[in-house]
Write a structure and sequence with these properties.
The chain is an alpha/beta fold. The protein folds into three domains: 2-30 and 143-267, Rossmann fold, CATH 3.40.50.720; 37-125, Helix Hairpins; 294-348, Alpha-Beta Plaits (2-Layer Sandwich). The chain contains twelve helices and eleven strands. It has helices spanning 2-7, 37-61, 72-83, 96-125, 127-141, 153-164, 179-187, 200-205, 221-234, 250-256, 264-277, 279-288, and strands at 27-28, 146-149, 172-176, 191-194, 213-216, 239-244, 260-263, 296-301, 317-323, 326-329, 343-348. The strands form two sheets. The chain has a seven-stranded mixed β-sheet with strand order 1-4-3-2-5-6-7, with helices on both faces. Helix 2 (37-61) packs antiparallel against helix 4. It is a multi-pass membrane protein. The chain crosses the membrane at residues 45-61, 100-125. This is Voltage-gated potassium channel. Its main location: membrane.
């Protein structure tokens, strides 16, 4: 039944079957040195004006070498028609000196002007080709990345936490049908894919089968279930972390294949309740959930010298142990002693202190 349900959300065209050049408007690869097209045009226009002015000054200071006495306006006119290769022929160099200067200075300036003009045209014509090559290279090399489906409030917060925890922006892919949201993601240096996270072809071009983790953060619970089903079908080994608004839908996400489910409405409700009684507790919890400042909750590998010790006696403030993928809280019997291969869940004291890896 689930495959038939998902089929309703699929379009007639499978994006994953399209060539790379057809995905220019679907996949956005951030360009570190990206410049506004208007800025590029203004810069080239400035260079062209400098070349024209340079030739005009040469002609003006050597005005006696031309077929008529030149005013500065005449020199500017001659420079314009000369470097643009229009060449009306009404003003021409007649002396040996003027002709030599034309050969040595004005002709190279004319060539520079033509190259500048051709370069501007080629830049426009090859922009799509450049983007197509970037997309092709990215699709071949992307591995162990994290996909965030939905770039609303929850998705942006998830990305902020990932970046603050040291993940490179190039290793985060955002999927969203809203181009305005994708524009914000691109400004953070993230790779973007335009489309719905419920569609298999969109997930495929985002490299979901090679992803390390997928964060599902839509605005509705039914969409979260469908997205989880689609992701788990294509990526059996990826870690799926999903957000759900209502706790009664948690089991649906877990049955659909989510490894971890965050209940957003209940979490917010608890914080609101705590804020009315003990606002300082809420302040501290917000501090712990903000990895880029103050305290934060982190995870690290256990050192060889810590094996066998009680985690309560370690230098870090321990909250629990992660053993074979299972979390054991600090007061549980399984967390009485640290074993080889365990990871420590602890409170990181400063933003720069990453603990041991």
């Amino acid at each position: 039944m689930a495959p038939r349900f998902r089929e309703r959300f699929r379009g007639d065209i499978e994006l994953s079957d399209l060539p790379d050049h057809a995905l220019v408007d679907v996949i956005g690869i951030p360009n570190a040195g990206a410049t506004s097209p208007w800025a590029l045009i203004a810069r080239r226009f400035f260079y062209a004006a400098v070349i024209v002015l340079f030739v005009a000054l040469i002609a003006y200071f050597d005005q006696e070498g031309y077929s008529e006495e030149l005013t500065f306006l005449d020199a500017l006119y001659y420079a314009s028609v000369s470097v643009s290769t229009t060449g009306y022929g009404d003003i021409t160099p007649v002396t040996q000196q003027a002709r030599l200067i034309n050969i040595l200075l004005i002709t190279p300036a004319r060539l520079a002007f033509v190259i500048l003009l051709v370069g501007t045209t080629l830049s426009v014509l090859t922009e799509n080709s450049r983007k197509s090559l970037q997309i092709q290279r990215w699709r071949k090399t992307v591995r162990n990345h994290t996909i965030v489906i939905g770039y609303g409030t929850k998705g942006r917060s998830a990305v902020t936490a990932l970046l603050a925890d040291g993940l490179s922006p190039a290793q985060i892919v955002v999927i969203d049908p809203d181009r305005t949201a994708l524009k914000r993601a691109e400004q953070q240096g993230l790779v973007t894919v335009h489309g719905s996270g419920t569609k298999a072809d969109v997930l495929k071009i985002a490299g979901v089968s090679r992803a390390r983790a997928v964060v599902i953060a839509p605005s509705s619970d039914d969409t979260a279930v469908l997205q989880t089903l689609s992701v788990r079908e294509l990526a059996p080994s990826a870690m799926i972390v999903a957000s759900v608004r209502e706790s009664e839908n948690q089991h649906l996400l877990e049955q659909s294949g989510a490894d971890s489910v965050v209940i957003s409405s209940e979490t917010a409700g608890r914080l609101l309740g705590l804020a009315t009684v003990t606002p300082t507790v809420v302040e501290m919890m917000e501090d712990l959930l903000s990895p880029d400042e103050g305290f934060s909750i982190s995870e690290r590998a256990i050192g060889e010298d810590e094996v066998g010790a009680n985690p309560r006696h370690l230098a870090d403030i321990a909250l629990g142990l992660v053993r074979s993928g299972e979390l054991y809280r600090i007061d549980s019997p399984e967390a009485e002693a640290v074993e080889p291969g365990d990871r420590l869940l602890y409170i990181r004291r400063t933003p720069g202190e990453k603990g041991r890896d």
